[in-house]
Amino acid sequence: MASVFRSEEMSLMQLFLQVEAAYCCVAELGDLGLVQFRDLNANVNSFQRKFVNEVRRCESLERILRFLENEMEDVVKIVKLEKYPETPLPREMIDMETVLEKLEAELLEANQNQQTLKQNFLELVELKHLLKKTQDFFEAETNLPDDFFSEDTSGLLELRTTPSAAAAKLGFTAGVIKRERVIPFERLLWRACRGNIYLRYTEMDTPLEDPVTREEVKKNVFIIFYQGEQLKQKIKKICDGFRATVYPCPESATERREMLDGVNTRIEDLNTVITQTESHRQRLLHEAAANMWAWEIKVKKIKAIYHILNCCNIDVTQQCVIAEIWFPVADAGRIKRALHQGMERSGSTITPILTTIHTRMAPPTFNRTNKFTAGFQNIVDAYGVGNYREMNPAPYTIITFPFLFAVMFGDCGHGAVMLGFALWMVINEESLLAQKSTNEIWNTFFSGRYLILLMGIFSMQSPWEQACLFRY
User: What are the coiled-coil residue ranges (predicted)?
Assistant: First the structure.
C-alpha cells in the first residue's frame, strides 16, 4: 500500500549483454516498460555512435512510410490489427527495406506515368476546345452582314474575298491562357504591338484539373490576328511570358474538322490508359495499406532499440554491450525473466549479467498507476513530478479534484450528461481501445474517463447537499 502514496524504490544496475543478444534483450525490456537506460555516451556526437547507420536506415523507412501515407490520404483506409506486432529481428529489417523500396519505386513510376498521361489529356482537351471555339469564331465572322466591315477591319480580318484583302493577307495565333491573366495579356499585346493586332477570346465551358497540383483551373481560348513576321515573334514572346499554351490551328475549316475528329479519338484512347494506370496505382496502395500500420509500429520499435543501444558502451573486444539501467526493486524478477527471454529469442547461450551499482545519484521518480489512477496521476504530473520517494498527492486528488469541481460546477443536468458520457466510455472501454484512435482530443477524454465519471457523480451530489443545508 506504501507504493500508492509514495514513488517506487528504484535500483541502479550494470547490465552486461552479448552483442548478438543485445538487440533482443533491449526489445524485451522495452515491451516490459519498466526500465530507464542511462546514456553512457553523453559526450559522444550523435553521428559518431555505434549504431548511427541503423538509425539512418530506420529514418529512411519512416520517410517511405510517410510518402505512402500521404498518397493514401482519405481514399484508402489503413488496416489496423487487433494486436501490436512483435519487434522484428535485425534480419527482418532487410526484408522490410526491400519490400518498401520496391513499393516506393513502383508507386513513383505509376505517379509519374499518371501525371504525364494527365498532362497529355489536358493538352488534348485544350486543343479540342480551341478547335471548336476557333471554328465557331470563323463561322460567326463569315456570316456577318456586308455593311459590318469598315474600311479598316475588312482587310484586317481577311474575311472578305477582295483583291485588297488578298494583298494584305494576315496570319493568326491561337492558344489557351489562364482566365486571371487575360486582361494584362490583352493590355500588353495592345501596347507592344501598337494596336496592330486583333484579339478575340472566349471562356472555356469545362473547368480543367492541373495534373501536378490537382487543383481546378479555369482557362480562356484566344486567337490573335497579325500581319508580318516581326509581330509574330513579339506575340510568341508575350505568350511565353504569360505561360500561354499556343497550339497549331489549320486555316481551312475542313482541316480543322479532321483534326478535331483525330483529337476526340486520342482523348478516348487516353481515357482508357489513364483508367488502367489509376487501377494499378490503387492496387499498389491497397497492398501497402494492408501492412502499413504494422510496418509503422515495427520501424518505430527498431529505431527505439537502436537509440537505446547507442546509449550503451561496447567493450574493447567488441563482444559485450555494457548498459546501466534504473528499474523498480519490486520488478527485479520480471526484468530477469525478460532478459532471459531475449537471450533465448536471439539464440545466444550466454546469460545476461546484472550487478548492483552503489551511487549517490538521485534516482528517477516512478509512480505505478492503473487505468483508474492514470488520469489523476497525469493531472499531478502536469504541475510537476515529485522527488524520489516523496509523497505522491495523486491518491488524494481522487477525492479532492472531483469535490472542488463540484463546488464550482454543481448542476444536476450537466452532471448527468457527464456521468452518462463517462459510463458509456467505461462500459465500452474494450471495444473503444480496440479501435486505436489517433484523434488527440478523443484520446484525452478517454484516458480521463474515470475522472469524468467521478466529476459527474460529485456534480450531481453537490446541489442536493446545498439544498439540505439550506433547509436545515
Answer: 51-120
Nearest to 175 by CA among 251, 249, 121, 238: 249
Q: What distance, in Å, lies between the first and last C-alpha atoms of the chain?
A: 40
- Residue 313, Cβ neighbours under 10 Å: how many? 13
Q: Is the sign of the CA dihedral 141, 142, 148, 151 positive or negative?
A: positive
Task: Output the CA–CA distances (angstroms, integers) from residue 445 to 258, 414, 429, 456, in the order listed.
Answer: 67, 16, 12, 14
User: Which residues are CB-neighbours of 101 under 8 A, at least 6 positions away?
Assistant: 64
Q: Which three cell numbers stand for residue 351?
A: 546469460
Helix 229-241, helix 182-192: angle, nearest 10: 150
User: What pTM value is reported for the model?
Assistant: 0.76
Which set of grid coordinates corresponds to residue 167? Answer: 494583298
The pLDDT tens digits of the residues spanning 177-193 come to: 999 999 999 999 888 88
Number of Cβ within a 10 Å radius of residue 461: 16
Q: C-alpha cell of 422?
A: 463517462
Cβ proximity of 154 and 162 under 8 Å: yes
Neighbours of 244 (CB within 10 A): 21
Phi and psi at residue 13, in whole multiples of 5°? -135, 150
All residue ranges of the chain with pLDDT < 70 are 1-3, 141-169, 462-472
Q: Are 204 and 258 in contact (CB under 8 A)?
A: no
Cβ atoms of 27 and 342 within 8 Å: the answer is: yes
Residue 11 main-chain phi, psi, to 5 deg? -130, 140
Q: What grid cell was written down for 312?
A: 550503451
For residue 85 the three cell numbers come to 506486432
Cα distance between residue 338 and residue 387, in whole Å: 28
Nearest to 291 by CA among 47, 63, 96, 449: 96
Q: What is the largest CA-CA distance in the chain?
A: 116
> In the prediction, which pLDDT does 58 show?
94
Exposed, middle or buried by CB within 10 Å (0-12, 13-18, 19+), for 176?
A: buried
